[in-house]
Design brief:
- With 267 residues, the chain is of the alpha/beta class.
- The chain has helices at 12-18, 36-49, 63-75, 78-93, 154-168, 184-193, 215-225, 239-266; strands spanning 102-111, 120-122, 127-136, 142-149, 174-177, 196-199.
- Strands 1, 2, 3, 4, 5 and 6 form a six-stranded mixed β-sheet that branches.
- A hairpin with a 5-residue loop joins strand 3 and strand 4.
């Protein structure tokens, strides 16, 4: 009997894109016997459904096996590498340079659960939990994600993000941000990293909802992440696990976009 697909499963076109990026089995050990496509499907099911690892359906690989690969690839940087590779493909397909020269930064405070781990209280958002700090390119594709306690101010969290971004993105010269990043951070970014931090402010005479130039891009990225129930709160003990989940969410989104782009060009 043919296995029914879950909505989060990779289709054939998506797996064709992702399969070459899956790390090969380590040499010298027992040959890999698990179906790697089903391993990825198990991770995506957990991400999109928001269930606990022990509640993965029985028609997927054993949860210990699925979690083993998730944890291993979290530790060795595989998720970041796949995100980078797919982001580069999408940028080139859009006629852009592989590496961005401009980016947008923003943060999102989310509640944590009863699991142990670092947390804090964001007085501005009135949220006890953690803060997701992301840096995206002008297409909204993820460059850097950093998860930390919610009580860390945006300006301090931005320094951590920009320090990391400077190591990987040599072409980067301009970053857009909202008013929460104004002040001394502008001079720090310029003097420390020779980058321009431009603040996009809301007009004082405008009331209600307002689409702000550049800032809407990063806000759309947060909206993309919200489709994954695992990201509705921070359920993880370690911030690094939260970061891995965000990378995986973007990987799945980009794989789907590339598959649709390829099918459109082939038709």
């Amino acid at each position: 009997m043919e296995k029914k697909l879950y909505p989060s499963d990779l289709n054939d076109a998506e797996w064709k894109i992702l399969e070459p990026l899956i790390p090969p089995a380590k040499s010298g050990g027992r040959p890999r016997s698990v179906n790697m496509r089903e391993i990825i499907n198990g991770i995506l099911y957990e991400l999109h459904s928001g269930c606990a690892w022990r509640m993965l359906p029985h028609d997927l690989p054993p949860r210990q096996t699925v979690y083993h690969y998730f944890r291993q690839w979290k530790g060795d940087g595989t998720w970041e590498h796949i995100n980078e590779t797919l982001r580069t493909q999408l940028r080139k397909a859009d006629g852009r340079e592989a590496e961005p020269s401009a980016a947008i930064i923003d943060s999102q405070s989310v509640k944590t659960t009863s699991v142990k781990g670092i947390r804090g209280y964001d007085g501005g958002k009135k949220v006890k939990g953690r803060k997701r700090h992301i840096l995206v390119d002008t297409m909204g594709l993820l460059l850097i994600v950093l998860v930390h306690a919610a009580n860390i101010q945006d300006r301090d969290g931005a320094k951590l993000v920009i320090n990391k971004a400077r190591q990987y993105f040599g072409r980067l010269c301009l970053i857009w941000a909202d008013g929460g990043y104004a002040g001394k951070l502008i001079d720090w970014v310029l003097n420390t990293h020779s980058l321009v931090l431009e603040i996009v402010k809301r007009s004082d005479d405008m009331k209600g909802f307002q689409v702000l130039p550049r800032r809407w891009v990063v806000e759309r990225t947060f909206a993309w992440l919200s489709f994954c129930r695992r990201l509705s709160k921070d359920y993880e003990v370690l911030p690094e696990t939260s970061e891995a989940m965000i990378y995986i969410a973007m990987i799945h989104l980009m794989v789907r976009h590339i598959a649709i782009h390829n099918q459109t060009n082939d038709s």
